[in-house]
Amino acid sequence: MRSLRCVLMTMLLALCSLVATPALADSLDGSSRHLSMRLVAESDHPKAGAPLTIAIATTPDTDWHGYWANPGDAGFPATLDWTLPRGVTAGQPEWPVPTTLLIAGLMNYVYEAPYAPLVTIQVPAGLAAGVKLPIRLKTSYLVCSATICVPEEQALALDLTIGDGAPSQASAFAGWRRAIPKPLDAGATYAVDQGVLRVAVPFPAGARAKDAYFFPLTTGVIDNGARQTVTRSGDTLTIATRLAANGKANAPIEGVLRIGDAQGLAVSAAPGVVAAGPSDNAGGLWATALAAFAGAVLGGLILNIMPCVFPILSLKALSLARGGASEREARHEALAYTAGVVLVCLGLGAAILALRAGGSAVGWAFQLQHPAAIIVLLLLSTAIAFNLAGLFEVPTPRFAGESGASGAFATGALAAFIATPCTGPFMGAALGAALVLPWPAAMAVFAGLGLGLSLPFLAIGFVPAWRRWLPKPGAWMETFRHVLSVPMFLTAIALAWVLGRQTGVDSLTLALVAVLAIGAVLWIGGTRQRKGKAFGAATLAALAVVFVGSAVVIARAPPASARAAVAGDEAFSEAKLAALRAEKRGVFVYFTADWCLTCKVNEKAAIETATVRDAFAKNKVAVLIGDWTDGDPVMGRFIEAHNRAGVPLYLYYAPGAAEPTVLPQVLTPALLAGLGV
């Protein structure tokens, strides 16, 4: 019966094509098209020898819809006929996640809201800057309303000029790419039993799957209009539906699994064994949320001993070594410190979730991708170092070494903010899970990170026996305080290095001038304090001017030129990775950033060592470097696809392997030297 309906619908569409000839003529002259289309290039000045993504930005008229690559039980997909300059080639279109439209028992896979298929074209090498690149597309498609279908054609044109490849539509493409199904890291399986097709998709138990639905790209396998049942069991999501009449299920089935509004996964399912039995979605969700929370707490605790947090430990040491506080005071300070840490982590987490909801591919420590944030941290670290060295005393609120809950809160907030460049064991997976959990669970994970970071101070505040182990206060503390200025000065030097790498020597020079200005202002304030006077409102105003002025000037600085890689390494791109894998070579890919101290420690202690480099050469392991210092959105999406919220991320693609091995966040030369053996 369904087959008969499909035949009848096809006949009706053919009839529409005949009777709608006037409408087609109108659509060709542009007077009554029901799909508004335009070509948009990610860069108006593409780089020679590099891939360029072009969007076919499409907006249906109200109550009309276009069709997906598999239209379902009726309709037909768009055809794309490109006319390109010599040497330019176009890849297959990447279609956004569609929606379902059931009409008279027939299931259609359609777009009723604005959408944009993406096509990657390869620009040939050797073209000089300024060369014109005309792009032409003729497309034929079917557009329907609830009562009528109209075939239409459009001729689209886009004229580009060869240049530096700088993105000109980054925000729009970030949104369009969010709707493109992400590749599934692991293979899916399917099985057929008594006419029921069940597809098992590897999917983290805590990851949210809202309105899950399987759209088949392989036609003639499932009954499109049949009800789909979705169940969860551990890290597997299973879709059960009816096998199509005369359907054959003995080859891989391609499709898209919808996991949210305009979000999906590209699935390739092979015949295999699929376990039976539904599960409790909510139970699995909260179990994973609890696991991610525990991982965040443990990751935050370990963060206290990571190299990038040494300045934070210095601030804590002065606050904790003071001793002599009453039980009530100790607990109040511990709670205030914890509140400062947790609130900053929650604030950063909320900002990440909000930016990602808007289409930006940001991750942990995203603020350090902006030079203005670096200069603020640089000047702040310098001021704290001068304070620890005794140049001046911090006026209200007090920081390390001073009494009061306000000082403890400020110290905790500063500790969390400076800690953001680092990730450690457990932390990466926990934050990666947070990005796919419902927002209340995600915020709980970020709070868990803050709780772990503040746990040592919290424990000492509430366990008197631990406080008795602290050294007794005395004159030594003043000397100790001066010594602790050294790691803060080192932190400032590291931040200056990061700024120079991001924006170049001119901006670095301006930053050093700002550091000198900060030092002079603080010396004036300290001189007033030593004479028994207040720090001075004018002095505080001068500090604010230097901070804000420096941030504004540095924010406008152009990015530095490309950074040199270790000999033999190449910059990461998905095209280069695919080419190396096609050669059946082992590929080690590492994602780093100049502001990630954990990354730099791994690079110097393991990746760039002679032992590892010799082993890579011997085993023919190629190395690709993903530099995420400036927050490249394309790279950010690739990192996100591997369930990570930021760097470092280390991947090894064994020759011929379908999926990479995700390596630990703390590397050793022995681990890397064994790759490819």
TrEMBL record:
Residues 551-677 form the Thioredoxin domain. Pfam families: DsbD_N, DsbD_TM, Thioredoxin_7. It is a multi-pass membrane protein. It is found in: Cell membrane. GO terms for biological process: cell redox homeostasis; cytochrome complex assembly. The chain crosses the membrane at residues 285-313, 334-358, 370-392, 413-437, 443-467, 479-499, 505-525, 537-555. It comes from the Bacteria. The lineage of its organism: Bacteria, Pseudomonadati, Pseudomonadota, Alphaproteobacteria, Sphingomonadales. Its main location: membrane. Keywords: Cell membrane, Cytochrome c-type biogenesis, Membrane, Signal, Transmembrane, Transmembrane helix. Residues 1-25 form the signal peptide. This is Thiol:disulfide interchange protein. GO terms for molecular function: protein-disulfide reductase activity. PANTHER family: SUPPRESSION OF COPPER SENSITIVITY PROTEIN (PTHR32234:SF3), THIOL:DISULFIDE INTERCHANGE PROTEIN DSBD (PTHR32234). GO terms for cellular component: plasma membrane.
